[in-house]
Amino acid sequence: ERYREELERQNERLDRFASLVSHDLRNPLSVATGRFEVLREEAGVAATNEHAEAVDRALARMDDLIEQILTLAREGEPVDQWDAVLLSSVTRGSWEMVKTDSAELRVVDDMEFKADPERLQRLFENLFRNALDHGGTDVTVTVGALPDRARFYVSDDGPGIPEKDRESVFEPGYTTREGGTGFGLAIVSEMVAAHGWE
Predict the structure, then answer these.
(1) Cβ distance 155 to 124 under 8 Å?
(2) Per-residue three-class SS string for the chain
(3) Which residues, including other chains, have CB under 8 Å from residue 18's CB and lie 6 or more apart?
(4) Whole-angstrom Cα distance, residue 42 to residue 131?
(5) In whole angstroms, what is the distance from residue 182 CA to residue 175 CA?
(6) How far is CA 95 from CA 1, 27, 49, 170, 178, in A?
(7) How far apart are CA 135 and CA 160, in angstroms?
(8) Mapped to the 3 state alphabet, what secondary structure does 169-193 carry?
(9) Has residue 157 got a pLDDT over 80?
(10) Closest Cα to residue 21, out of 191, 172, 193?
(11) Which of 10, 11, 27, 173 has the CA that lies 20 to 30 A from 139?
């Protein structure tokens, strides 16, 4: 009961935060993006101008950060729609949604369990993107059932997470990659918690 009440309080805070991000940051960003386009056209600045490219990148990065923060806030809501899912199906479906280049997916066992299928797919997509970002385009990702057949794992043959970073990687904003947002694994952590999993 205490855990449920704490989750409700946390979700209320996240909802308020999401509203703030959505309204108070998205609106000025939209204005800045639109005005920059007008200014560039009026001044006749080429799209290849290094300063214009830098502004474009900065605006796109801000938009990406806002989207990931909103996703993080939304994914913390407890799951209320449970359906039976097959590990192999949701894994392969998620893999197809990610640009994987020469990376390889191995599904070594299968299991059926209950989850929110849409959130579970996004969970896998975030894990796969993280593996590709840190393990390279030729990384091999393996998904399978743990020996108790009640839980599953996702692993890859990339460089791994340094021991000192293992607790921090799930914190919002924490990243070891230049240009990373640090929200991918935080979103995964929120989705896991929303299912009541560890």
Answers:
(1) no
(2) CHHHHHHHHHHHHHHHHHHHHHHHHHHHHHHHHHHHHHHHHHHCCCCCCHHHHHHHHHHHHHHHHHHHHHHHHHHCCCCCCCEEEEHHHHHHHHHHCCCCCCCEEEECCCCEEEECHHHHHHHHHHHHHHHHHHHCCCCEEEEEECCCCCCEEEEECCCCCCHHHCCHHHCCCCCCCCCCCCCHHHHHHHHHHHCCCC
(3) 69, 70, 73, 74
(4) 43
(5) 4
(6) 37, 33, 37, 21, 24
(7) 8
(8) HHCCCCCCCCCCCCCHHHHHHHHHH
(9) yes
(10) 172
(11) 173
Quick: pLDDT tens for 20-31: 666 677 778 888
The pTM (predicted TM-score) of the whole model is 0.67
Residues 65 and 38 sit within 8 Å (Cβ to Cβ): no
Partners of 115 in the β-ladder: 83
Structure token pair of residue 122: 């996004």
pLDDT tens-digit series, residues 35-60: 888 888 888 876 678 888 888 888 88
User: How many degrees, rounded to 5, is the angle at CA 148 between CA 147 and CA 154?
Assistant: 60
Q: Which residues of 114-138 are buried (b: 16+ CB within 10 A; e: fewer)?
A: ebbbebbbbbbbbbbbbbbbbbeee
Average pLDDT, the chain: 83
The tokens describing 48, both together, are 């290849």
